Structures
1.
Amino acid sequence: MRRWNTEVAIVGAGWSGFRSISPDLSFREMMFEAATKAYSDAGIDPRRDLDGLVTAEEDFHEGVAISDEYVPDQMGAVLKSVHTIAGDGLQALAAGVMQIAAGAGRIVAVESHSKASNVLNLDQITALALDPVYQRPLEAHPIFIAGLEFRRYLEVTGTPIEHVARVVVKNRRNALRNPRAAFPADLTLEDVLHSEPLAEPLTRAMAADPADGCVVFVLARGDVARTLTDRAVWIRGLGWATDSYTLENRDWEGARYLRQAAERAYRQAGIQSPRRAFDLVEVDDTFAYKELQHLEALGLCRPGEAGRWTAEGATEVGGELPVNPSGGCLGEGHLLEASGLARLLEAVLQLRGEAGPRQVPNARTALVASWRGLPTTTGAVAVLSREP
Amino acid sequence: MEPWVYPSIALKQEDFEEGRIRTTRTPLRGEYAWDAGVAVGRFLAELKAGRLVGRRCRVCRRVMVPPRMFCEQCFRPTDTWVLLQDTGTVLTFSVCTVAWDMRRLEVPEVPAVIAIDGASPGMGILHKLGEVGQTNDEILDRVHIGLRVQAVWKPPHQREGAITDILYFRPV
């Protein structure tokens, strides 16, 4: 993918949550809170300035068919262009960027939210994503897929399970310094390794718990962004890809979806050696091993190297390359299809120097990578910079 | 060349009944408990008390029902709760002879949008009309756009904070 001719920047960010439950707010009120913050942050009046809205939603998570019809009012987008992506929030970001690049709008909002606490049988809803002929009749909890992939990862890379547990310790501790995080904790390696087994070798502590929350961004065409703010965060590269989905013969090792997505994003951003290109990384860690597998797929280290890297402290805030200073999905909570935007939010705040006690000093470039969750093989990557 | 991508024959009912055609049946179970939040929560609580409430936006001066905490026209928080009447005017209606589960109805249902007195023009709730006849012709004879109606409530001890605390609207 070549570089787009149009520069696009993030000029506003807002959020609501994140919390394990949110009975005080309807999803509409949660979106209104996040949108109000984002528009105020961007200094725009959405009724006057907003050209369009892109949301990422899954009807089965909302419990409403055609749920995208329920979004414009609380986003200030009544009678404007509204598009919904059934996918991760970073894919919605890509759609918003493309609309601006195509000339369909100057200012576009991107939104995604989670009311995971309202889905009483969330695991069974995830199971509905399994093949109805080959897999569903086996009546296995979909978390087994993580167990299958985790085992192959350990086997092929020779990564000790303690290094995977270290990811949990790091991310939950990072969350202690993040007011948005739903699940901050000070755990030991033993706490993680000896927590309840879920799908061996995966333990409960290695799987992110779902949380409620909403994230909204305001995107603007380069010239408009410059008039709105001097804190713009520029989108330098974007990529997304979906691998073959079959459980029977998919690639179990290398997260090829993210490797492919990253190659496209790097090409667009003109990045040749990703290992030295970023000041911080926010990457999907729905399951602890996923952080390691994804770091390797992103080309930030060689296959099998991410575990040792983590054990040596290279991915801590203050290390060689901080990974998930927000606490990731493990620390912030898993926001369903809003998870990618939660990763993006931390990267944006870091690049603006607004990350408070977990600020990575002088952060100028960031890499964001998302995964669409079980049982998918879809990932998306965004390269961000303080400079256009 | 064959006209079809796959060789094709017409299927008969017997093909399914006699097991020549294989299908997979799979139930979809989704269980949800939606957070009502501030606006819907108060609306439901007031229904249980036998009242209808709306929210007023100070800027565009509209009184909105069902209530919402934000004004979608002005994109700002709404300001005050407003107690409304349980009377109103039929904005539009239909005489419906099939139920939601596709059953043929002996006595048709009359879904209607009712503009509620005290709310801004065009602001109403969706409900059913009752006491308006047993047949299509009877109903069309009695119901018209602009018909004045009033809510018929369940007895207080049977109300549960739901839209069904109003049984139906009847002509006044």
2.
Amino acid sequence: MTAPQPSRAKFIRSAIQTGLKPLAERWGSFSRTRFGSVIARAFSTNAAWIFLLLIVLMFIFNFLAPGKFLTEFNVRSMAENVAVLLVIAVGETFVMATGGIDLSVGYVLLFSGVTSAQTMNWGGRDPTNSGWDVVLLGFVVAIGSGLAWGVLNGLIVAKAKVPALIATLGTLGMSWGLAEILSNGQDLRYLPTIIADMGASRVIFDKVPLVVVVAVTVAAMGAVILSLTKFGRYTVAIGSNQEAARRAGINVDRHLILVYAMSGTLAGLAGFMSLAIFTTTTISGHANDNLQAIAAVVIGGTSLMGGVATVAGTTIGVCIPMVLFSGFTILGYQSFWRDVAVGAVLILAVYTDQLRRRRRERR
Amino acid sequence: MADPLLQARGIVKNYGHVEALRGCDFDVYPNEIVALIGDNGAGKSTLIKILAGTEQADEGEIVLEGHRIHVGSPFEAMRLGIETVYQDLALAPDLDGSANLYLGREVMMAGLLGKLGFLDNKTMRAGARKAFGELGVDLQNAQSAVANLSGGQRQSVAVARSVAWASKVVFLDEPTAALGVVQTARVLETVKRIRDRGVAAVLISHNMRQVLEIADRIEVLRLGRRVARFEGKGATIEQLVSAMTGGIAEEGAA
């Protein structure tokens, strides 16, 4: 009874092979064309597959909840919800491209929001009707706070040689604690109406929230810097082989400090954006920001070992959890299914990265 | 014979109580392949590191084209036209051949874009193709990450990278240690081309056959000193081994 099975299996295999052969040949000749090689190269990266996953997810949710998922309202609210996360994830992409990690982003974001709000509330005054000068000051304080934490992270990692995981875990605790101390654990609710207006305003035919435009601009600039400039080249080179970068004459310490400073600064910007969106400091709302940002970066195809990173991938990696969350919610499932699904995608992303590394090491 | 291009004189280097080099001399002449050989622990790698600027000598001097020089860092060595191919390659595996070739010496776009930090990848790729071509390195896919290349191709990229920027001397520390027969032959061919370009090549190798095959001259270290010098032609493996293991008297010793 069992005897025919191997030959049947062989038959099926050969049938598949002969069936696939012309396809494979066609793909082979296609991938040698100019356009084809671009496509082929794109699909050798994680980002393209993740993008495909995002499209498929949107298609599925739209199919299961027609007229509810891909509506202007839902797409806008999804975009608004990922804007802040995208900004810190762009900074995280650069850090992880160097082979490091920045755990502190969520609480640096919070710290920057608190210092910014307190500056605008200086002396207990009601800032509701404050002018642009106060808002600008608040903005500068938010950016400056983020920058300061980022530089501190960079110095600890690059100069003191403390592993990034521990260095930024330390500054996570410090920035969190200080934010709680400064605010007495109370959310500051009084902010200039200008900020609230900014958070609620829409541009481009009154359809796109301003914060989304800011986040997309940050991502676009990040993508250009990472892939087209010397700064980006040094970032991945350091992540790929720090010693090689050093021997090539690159000032590795300085570059690392700049990268962590950039991550901190973007966290500061995100803190200000968060103030604008929620019109309060949202003290208890940032516990998972760092892990969400890291998950987004990793899902987007950035290697945990550094050296490989794209901001486009990160952008998609930010969107996937949001799409899952929104989709599950609309379909009436508990939104915690998102966490289950994101966890699985995360593991899958790292697994495929490991596979690729193992495959190339065998050469 | 012409004057030496690069000379090390009386180099001393201690690591704690270990005397790696004890008054070591070394000469490199223009347009030659000189092999630096010696048993394990003879001080070859230390000497190369000092000449390439990654380590500092405790005593002694380095002379380049008749002038005493100070090589405080690999960067200074590079500026002086001295490049090193390290045993562990020192490439960024995730970057392509062109990015590796130009690492730390990127070509920027002209004008404002360049000032903003934009790379001129097109020029760099063309330059890389030319540099690899000159050394007979065939990269089927120049845009593929170096990690995807075979060991020999990777080594060739590392060698090409050094050669492209070296105007005077290239140090090669065991460049064929991890390679197969065909790849080894290719790298050795590359080393010959370095010399043909008017650059001196210093080859560290444990493979005596290989040394005799391509070296114009051979210098032997033992216990941190130079103990013998040979012309490449006419030397035998027995002579080399004897010098390495102390079978003949130390050069210059009483």
